[in-house]
Amino acid sequence: MPNDGLKISNISKRFGTIQAVSEISLRVPNGSVVGFLGPNGAGKTTTMRAIMGMVELDSGEISWNGQPVEGSVSTRIGYMPQERGLYARMKVREQVIYFGRLAGMSKSEAASSADHWLERLGVSERADTLLQDLSGGNQQRVQLAVSLVHNPELLILDEPFAGLDPVAAYTMSAIISERAAAGASVLFSSHQLDLVEELSKEVVIIANGKLLTSGAIDDLRQASPRRKLSVRWTEPVDSWTPLDGTLTISEPQRAVAELSASDDVGANIAHAIAAGSVIEVSVEPPSLDELFVELIGAAQ
Amino acid sequence: MIWTIAIRELQTRGKSKGFIVITAILFAAVIGGALAISFLGGGDDPVEYTIGVTGDGVDYTAALETGTDLLKPTVQVVTGDGEALVNDGEIDVLFDGSTLTWEGFPNQSLDSYVRSIAQQVQLGQRATDLDVGPSELSNLLTPIEIGEVRLDGSDTDFAVRLATAAASGFATFMLLQTWGAFIMMGVIEEKSSKVIEILLSHVQPSTLLSGKVLGLGVLALVQMIVVVIGMVVGLSLVEDIQIPTSVWGTVPLVLVTFLLGFGFYATAFAAVGSMVSRQEDATTAQLPAMLPLLAGYAIAAASFGNPDNPAAVIGMFIPFTSPVLLPFRNAMTDVPTWQVAISLAILAASIVLMVKLGGRIYRYSLLRSGTRVSFSEAWKNRNQVGF
User: Is there a single domain that holds both residue A196 and residue A265?
Assistant: First the structure.
C-alpha cells in the first residue's frame, strides 16, 4: 500500500545487555492520531528515534507511505524529542527559519512559515529575542514551532505535553487535531492518558520493549473482561455488597463494584435493585487509565 | 544543507564580539611584532649614553666620543665620586682605563662599544711603540673578506628565515588550537543544550560535522590571512626591511597547509568534544587532539638551531605534526618540492581517514549523555547513534 502512512514492522534493537525494543509493530494511517503508551523505559523513545533514523535497528523495517524513512522522506517529518533543546543564544525567528531551511525549505518559505507558527503559538512578539531570554513555557512553544515549521506530513512527538501550562496544552491539542484533519499522521507519547483519550482513537501500548496491545481505544476497553458496575439509590441502603466481584466504593447511597468476566452482571444489577430504589445504574468497561495499569501490572 | 549549517556557524561566530576582538588583537599583535623586529634590528635613531671617564680613562675621551650608527655617547670627565654618579644614573658607566663600573648588569652594546674603543686606542699606542705607522696598522687590521656561493640560488638571509618560520609555525599552531577549541565547545554546547537531537532529525551527523568544519574553517582562514596581511603591513611600515621574494613563495604553502591541518584537527577536536556532555570536561577531553598538535610545536621550537634533525624531518610527514612542521621547515631550510608534495598528500589523505574515524566517534557519541564515552566504546558502536 503506497499511502498507508507510517508502518513499523517487527523492529528490534538491543543496547549491550538491554533489549530496548523487541519485535514491535505498529501503524499510523494518514490523517490519524495514535497515542504511544508505556511506562518509563518501555522503549517508546528508542522506537521514535528509530523512526527518525537515529537508531540502527537489529531487525525490522520502518516505512512511510511505502518508502523507507530516509533522505527526502525524513525532511517531511516533524520531530519533538523528549529532551527539549534549541540554541540558547540564537534569536527565536532566526532559529525557526534555520530549522525550516535544514528541512529543505527555501529562505522565503521558511521565513513565512516561521512567522505563521510563531503567530499561531503566541510568541510572535518575541521573534527577535534570544531563546535564552524566554520563559520555559515560551521556549516550549518555540520548540513546537521548530517541529512544525516545515509543515510536516508525519509528526513524531515524544511527550509533547510534558511541562506545558494548560493554555499551551490546549493549543498543542488543537494543532495536533488540525494537522491530522489536514491529512498528517501523528504518533505521540504521553503519560497524560486523559489527553490521549481525547486526542486519539487508537493507542499502542508497550512495556519492557514489547508490544502489549494496540488498536482503537473503544475496542480495547470493550475487549477487557472487567466491568465497573456503578449504582446510585434514592435513599441510603444498608451496607450493600455485590454478589460477585470487588466493592471499590461504598457510600450510603452509592456503590461501585469491579466485576470480572465470569461474574453475572444482570444478577448483580437485580441484587442492587432489590436493596433499594435505584436512580442510576451503569456498567462500564475499564477506562484507558485502568486498562493501562492492568496491562502494565500483568506484564511486570 | 552543508552550506546552511556552515553559514549559521559563520554568522554566529563571525558576528560574535569574541571573534572580532581576537581578529583585531591578532592584526595589531602581528603589526606590533613586525615593528618590534625593526626596532630590535636597528631603529632610525642611535641610543644616547653618557660615559664617565676618570684616571687613565680620560685618555680615551676623544676616541669614545666617536660613536656608531646605533650608539651616540657623551663623554664626561669625572673628578669627584664617580660611583655615586653611576648609582644616581647621571652616567651609564664609569671607565678608569682598566675597569668598567656599572650600577648593575652591564648594558651589552655599551659594554662592547667601550671595550672595542679601548682596544683600538691601545692597539694604536702599541703600534706607535713598535714604529708601525697608521696605514700599516690599518692594513694589518683589515678583515679578510670571505664570500659565499649558494648552489641552490637562495637569497634569503638567516634572520628572515627565522622570522618567517617562527611566524608561520606559531600562527598555525595558535589558530589550529584556538579553532579546535571553538569547534569542540560548539559540539559540547549542542550536546548539553540537547539541540543535537532536533538537528539529527533533519541531517546526518556527517553533514552536520562537515558544515561546522566548513563554516568555522572559513573564519579560521580569514584570521590566518589577517595574520599574513598584518605581517605585510607591519613590515612595509619599516623602511629598512626588504622582504625577500622567497618569503612570498612560502605564503601559499602556509595557507594550504593551514587549511588541510584545519580539516584534520577540526574533525579530531569535534570527535573528542562529542565524547563529553559538559563544558567542565572540555579541558580533559581535548588532550588527545591537543597533545599531538603541541608535540609538533615543541619539535619546531626545539629545531631552530637544526631544522634538519630527525624529529623535525619525520614529523613533517606525520599528519599530527606536519601542519606545524611543514611550514616551519620550509621557511627554515630548503625542503625539496617532492617532500612538500608528499607531506601535503599524506595530510590530505589523513583528513579522509580522520573524517571516517572522527566522524564515527562523533556519530555514536552525539546523543550519549552522562559519563564520558570511551574510545573503545565509540569505536565498537561506530555504526550507530548512541544513547
Answer: no
Give the gap in angstroms from C-alpha B293 to the nearest C-alpha of chain A: 30
Q: Do B387 and A15 touch (CB under 8 A)?
A: yes
A window 80-99, beta carbon within 8 A of B: 81, 83-90, 98-99
Q: For residue B178, how far is the Cα from the chain centroid?
A: 15
Residues 127-146 of A with CB under 8 A from B: 146
**pLDDT tens track for B257-272:** 999 999 999 988 988 8
**Cα–Cα distances in angstroms (integers) from residue B136 to residues B60, B118, B142, B143, B150, in the given order:** 22, 19, 10, 14, 35
Domains defined along chain B, listed by start: 2-39+156-380 (no CATH), 47-141 (3.40.190.10)
| Least CB–CB distance from A81: residue in B197, B202, B383 | B197
Kindly report, residue by residue over B354-368, the tens digit of the pLDDT. Answer: 887 877 777 777 766
Residues A172 and A33 in one domain: yes
Give this prediction's pTM. Answer: 0.74
